[in-house]
Fold Zinc finger BED domain-containing protein RICESLEEPER 3-like.
Amino acid sequence: MIDESPAIDESPNPTGASQAPSLDEGDSSKRKLTSPVWNHFKRQQIDGKWKAICNYYNGKLLGELKQGTSHLSSHFKTCKYRRTRDIRQSFLKTSASVTGETVVVDNYSFDQETVRQSLAKMIILHEYPISIVEHIGFKQFCNAMQPLFKMISHNTVKSDILNIYDGER
């Protein structure tokens, strides 16, 4: 019978680059964890079962080798705790010049007050009902556009609209 298991290189890495983490002691297999998703999880045995523990919020997911890693990859893509702390590193603001020949790139910083004023002006301009801010679809849209925007109540929008009116009067 021919052994069809892949050969494992046990030699140390001469370049010093990080290797895929190996399985924890006590596992019957000596195979390395090859999926890149394991860079974001620790494998630990809890109550006799292997668990994958998220490095960002310590959540416990299935960590058995037979379970695969697609559930870990899905969690990694949606994990809210792995985002960068400084939002300006993630977003860039671009604006074209008047001539249209050059593009200026600048850091983007979110400002809740500016967005509130823009929302009030949009409601005034298009004569939308003030209650639009409480519609589920509108809340989902705003969250998809800018997760940092803290949705406001219809009373707050009403107050903002009256402030705009007083300022222009």
Observations:
- The first strand starts at residue 41 and ends at 46.
- The radius of gyration is 26 Å.
- Residues 1-20, 24-28 have pLDDT under 50 and may be disordered.
